[in-house]
Amino acid sequence: MNYSQTLEFLFQALPAYETKGATAYKPGLERIAAFCRHTGNPQRNFFTVHVAGTNGKGSVSHIIASVLQQAGYRTGLFTSPHLRDFRERIRVDGEMIPKQKVVNFVDKHHDKMVELGLSFFEMTAALAFDFFAQSDVEVAVIETGLGGRLDATNIIMPVLSVVTNVGLEHTDLLGDTLQKIAAEKAGIIKKSIPVLIGESDNRYDPVFEQAAANNKSKLCFAEQIFACEEQTPTEAGQRFRLRRLRDNRSYEIQLDLAGDYQRRNIVTAAAAVDFLHEETPLTISRRAFLEGTRHAAANTSLQGRWQRLGEAPLILCDTGHNAHGMAYVTEQLKATPHKKLYCVVGFVRDKDLAHILPLLPRDAHYIFTAAQTHRALPAAELAAKAAIYGLQGETAGTVAEALARARELAEPDDAIFIGGSTYVVAEAL
What we know:
By secondary structure, this protein is of the alpha/beta class. The protein has helices at residues 3-13, 17-20, 30-38, 57-70, 99-116, 120-134, 171-174, 178-185, 205-214, 262-279, 286-294, 296-300, 323-335, 353-356, 379-388, 399-409, 422-428; strands spanning 47-52, 75-78, 90-92, 95-96, 139-143, 160-163, 195-197, 219-221, 226-234, 237-244, 249-255, 307-310, 314-317, 341-345, 365-368, 393-395, 415-419. The chain contains 17 helices and 17 strands.
């Protein structure tokens, strides 16, 4: 098979959550464990940091990976979904996995993948583990796909587990309360392996406290390690002043990512890096930490996080796609100077819009659209649902048409926002 045929097999022959939604979700670790045994358990060949959470896990994973890279470690990074290229999911020192490596892996293990009935995500995780081992990776940052307890990545034995936060998401699969979802994410806590919680909340903290106690695992809260005392936008992203609470040491941090919500992520990432340096075999200097955050997006090619795509009119996109993430995005939109706001939005069918649409600004003009995926909610259906919540506008058949229409309507001092779905942002990029 060539590369395009290999991708076609992965996306068509193996169930992919990205294309099929919940029907592709295969909970349980038996298949991935059996397949990794077949490939020699490559995931045991390097240190790992495991990152779960409702929002922020992508940014936190990329920041930690950038810092580790800056500290001189050969660093693997496994994240999902991708925006433009499947290979974005698997990186070593910021470089995507070569196409030929993807082809070779599938050619070699095709029959076993089919025999075990691996899901798309299970195959992708196994490919990442194998590639990291082949590439002499020393430490890998592994982001969960969905939940934690039954996620394919949960076969790793990390030196640190991180849960950024918990919000209502994938309630059909993970549970319909914060406590139930927290219990799924707490499933990444392993015996005697420390866990860091990014954002404390008295509604779900007891779930993590109990899980940590059951596993005799040290539990830390990021907000008890670092406090963010200042946040200032800059040309390249933003500047933070963090204070480490145990010794009152100050850190002036530059981050090449925009978005007010990064305030939470930088505290989580800083606490994780501090823990890795203090309590694991890894050594991370202050300089590596500062340089790693300064070049986090550049080192790891992170995109779609409150990203500016144009000026006059200001064009912004963000991949936040659940109620928890949309609340952050809406707050940021309110704080962004503009005369009139145009929103290019689209969602997938299985999204809980009853909790999302009420959060969106009512004074904006909406251009409802649908990305080119089977999971997309048709634009007309989205417009009808949005009207119930007082959101008015028009429809466009494709993201490209919606963006062209927004540009046509917007004046230089207006703003255009693109979001609602990772697919919509991917097509805009």
